[in-house]
Amino acid sequence: MMRLNPKMTQVLAKALIWGSALLVIVLLLFILLFVLIKGVPTLSWQFLTENPRDMGRSGGIFSTIVSTILVTLVSVAVATPFGVGTALYLTEFTREGLATRIIRFSADTLAAIPSIVYGLFGFIFFVINLNMGWSILSGGLTMAMMILPTIIRTAEEAILAIHPLYREVSFSLGGTKMQTILGAVLPSALRGIMTGVILSIGRCVAETAAVILTAGSSLRLPESVFSPARTMAVHFYILVREGISMERAYGTAAALIILILIINVGANMLINRFVAKNH
Amino acid sequence: MKRLLDRLPGFIFLLIALSALSALALIIVFIFYEGIPIIAKVGLGQFTLGMSWAPGKGEFGILPMIIGTVSVTLGAAVLGVPVAILTSIFLTEFAPAAVSRIVRPAIQLLAGIPSVVYGFWGLTFIVPYIRLWIGGPGLSVLAGSVILAIMILPTVISITEVSLLALPRTYKEGSLAIGATQWQTVWSVQLPAAKSGIMAAVILGIGRAVGETMAVIMVLGNAVALPESLLDPARTLTTNIGIEMGYASGDHQQALFATGIVLLVIVMSLNSIAQATLKRSQR
Amino acid sequence: MTVQPKIAIRDFSFYYGKHQAIQSINVDIHANEIFSLFGPANSGTTTLLRALNRLSDLVPGARTEGQILIDGQDIHAEDVIVTDLRRRVGMVFEEPVPLPMSIFDNIAYGPRMRGIRNKAVLAERVEESLKLAVLWDEVKDRLHTSALRLSGGQQQRLCIARILSLGPEIMLLDRPCAALDPISTAKIEDSLVLLKEKVTIVLIPHNTQQAVRVADRAGFMLMGEMVEQGPAERLFTVPEDNRTSDYITGRFG
Fold first, then answer.
1. CATH number, domain A46-278, options 2.40.50.180, 1.10.3720.10, 3.40.50.1000, 3.40.309.10
2. Which of B225, C29, C86, C140 could form a disulfide with A174 if both were Cys (CB 3.0 to 4.6 A apart)?
């Protein structure tokens, strides 16, 4: 076998390492540009504000946008109080012991469950057993369970990161435990918590497997949380699978990607401006 | 009375905190409840090792799907883990700050792309080129592996990075001080020291690959036969559920839930191993 | 006739679990004086200070014996409301800890938790407290900017103002100037001397010179014991106990 001296190995290794990083960037750009270049031309104001017609062969994607927003809203509105509450329990009311370990284990395990299994569960539990039918509510509640672990983890990290004396200061000024949590702990941890919530919003928008089994695939504009709904991701999947309209598929994908980009980039900027002004 | 009132917030928060546990319990209970009857009917051995999946004839053997999952996942690991580890090393040891500021958000973005978009991209680019340059129908285990390899990059990178950053700086400095090159230090000192963490990262990446559905549905070809080579189409446990759930009923539907049980068992085992490995690495 | 001390500590012991941090001490602290608790590290000074506003309650495994009486009333009695106690007995910590909010909100934090919502009342209290803490002139034009932008010395005076907005009778300060430069230190020491007209001050100095400068009376603690206490002038020039003189002259520390 050819013997390479350390200097040669270093050069070779560096090339591979930089190459890997480059590969990652190239792949990202490839995928993004592929969708955006083919899809953006379809994106017009009309496309975004018109409902789909003829099973999606013509018309726009308005109802899917609304559905996506509603399902995400339900999901985040339910998961955030439970997630932050759980994190607060772990940080403010307990010390490490059996209870905390069980809760953490549950959260970690929930995080590992495949989304299709969440879909199965949501279908049998929300859609069938609780008789909610295919609806925004079923989809939102299922996804709330999916994003719960993320919110717990990021909220806990954020709360543990606050200045250790903030609590003492609040107590020494005559605060009760709840006053300290609401007045000092949560406001200080807000930025980190928001980051976790935004991450979860991105996850909800991108999710397909769990949603298609619980929110259904109706193209009608949803009238309430009990209406069935088709989110953008599901719509994109169906358009591709059935070969209904490549043009609109690309358009939907582009809208989806742009939405995710806005969530990722824009929201983080907002956090930096709003919450960090006191940091 | 006042004492009870003082204890109230703690009690309420405890109830809230049990939500994660209850959610997990619910999922396990319901999936098992729906799936166990068919396993009992068909027999565990026949179900997990049976070669024939033909719901119309009442045959529910999921071995082809298990093989499908294993091959696609292994392929993803072989392709993706080296790239992920090299990229982690890049971020922790070799990247100038300005470049990190581009690469890190890029990885985050990669993680945010919907799986259906990955699948579609794979369908449009990876599948035809496999068909053209390598052979077979293109819709294949190989295509699935490539897509999954890309999809697990963020997971493996982030945990590997954490493990590398957790190493005491003296490890690296000691090695450099005796004249080793940067790469020698990484290869001989840092990577071995972070071994447990990296293993955990890989296991979690594999868990992620096992659970993926939508991207894989689009590029795997979905033939129920046993794949005999990388270029053959196949089905995984997840895609089987994804494809058939829309029209399954009765025993068929139950069998899909039973597949869900198998998935739960696999993923929960992988997760426990990974967590245990991570804990070991933290000692 | 002797006047009742503001704070009377009687046969007081403090335990962290099995470890006894304070050994059955007796201390008298008079109203409107600056009393300096001093001693080497781990002598129990911080523990005693934190016992005075029962912040020590927050430590798991904390246990007390004996009594601490403020105006003749045992602060550990069944009917004592701890949150009320802590408003009467305020504390300033070793490092300045402004809360991540505006200067105004920092000082209004305590009163707001008490239930005071009236904007005019809050504004008045904020102004008064900042004046007492000798910070008003420096910040009056930027009350609604972040408190984190203030300098170290200003932040510590903010922390003093934060307590004053609750109208406390007693102020506890644990090495308040440890992280500050001499000029800021001097400003705070001057404000303490002015403040003692309104409150009783218990101060742990970060070095004995500070105690010499500002204290009226002092108490030397060593390993949980109250070795000696009395008028500061006497204690720091002709102490009665050898251990006190050894510490003051730097034979150990």
1. 1.10.3720.10
2. C86
Query: What pLDDT, in 10s, does the model give residues A227-248?
Result: 999 999 999 999 998 888 888 9
User: Which chains would you list as touching C if contact means 3+ CB atom pairs under 8 Å?
Assistant: A
For testing contact with chain C, the best of A92, A163, A166, A169 (most C CBs within 10 A)? A169
C178 near A CB under 8 A: no
- What one-character-per-residue DSSP string does C120-183 give? HHHHHHHHHHHHHTT-HHHHTT-TTSBGGGS-HHHHHHHHHHHHHTT--SEEEEESTTTTS-HH
Give the C-alpha separation, A252 to A243, whole Å.
Answer: 14
pTM of the entire structure? 0.89
B132 Cβ contact partners less than 8 Å away, ≥ 6 residues apart? B138
What confidence tier does B158 reach under pLDDT thresholds 50, 70, 90? Answer: very high
Structure tokens belonging to residue A175: 């605060």
Domain extent, residue C193, equals 7-248
> Under CATH, to which class is B57-282 assigned?
mainly alpha
Residue C161: alpha-carbon gap to chain centroid: 13
Q: What is the mean pLDDT of residues A40-52?
A: 88
CA–CA distance, B48 with B62 (Å, rounded to integer): 5
Q: Which residues of A touch B16 (CB under 8 A)?
A: 81-82, 85-86, 89
Give all chains having 3 or more CB-to-CB distances under 8 Å with chain A.
Answer: B, C
Q: Which residues of B touch A112 (CB under 8 A)?
A: 204, 207, 211, 267-268, 270-271
Among C196, C243, C197, smallest CA distance to C219 is for C243
Q: Does A89 touch chain B if contact means CB atoms closer than 8 Å? A: yes
